Give the backbone structure.
Amino acid sequence: MKLLTKISDGLNRVTQILGAAFLIGMTVLIIVNAALRYVFNISIIWAYDVLRVLMVGLVFFCTCMVYYQKEHIRFVIIYDKYGPAFRKAFNVFVYLAGILLFGVLGVTGLQLSVSLWNTKLASSGISNFWLYIFFSLSMFVLIIHGIRFIAEELERR
């Protein structure tokens, strides 16, 4: 359990760092591109392709952070009416369903990413692979978090 917790915590830290780096990169690129456009009447041709890739990565890495903190949307109408045994079983079921969904999405996304390796974004020449790989990576991070959550639920009395 301690190893699983360390892996989950480590992956959360990596997603925080990458999310912050992507947000900073987007901010700098937007400011520089806007300044160049308004001051010198030129713009960075590849900026929008890079911004698109950074935005996709930011969204999916932030999804991992929200899930790790258990701040995602929950339907608590039924959940709140029942006792601890039901809640434990319900949580395990939801986490298992999530792991299954994340697994299917992650594998499918990885297949899509790999198949797009040779295709390029128009203005930058960046591989389309980068638009989709962050999705797959985030799904596998969510699986690790889900496994940790199940272990914590089963350990809890």
Observations:
- The chain has four helices and no strands.
- Residues 2-40 form the longest helix (39 residues).
- The radius of gyration is 20 Å.
- Helices lie at 2-40, 47-68, 84-115, 129-155.
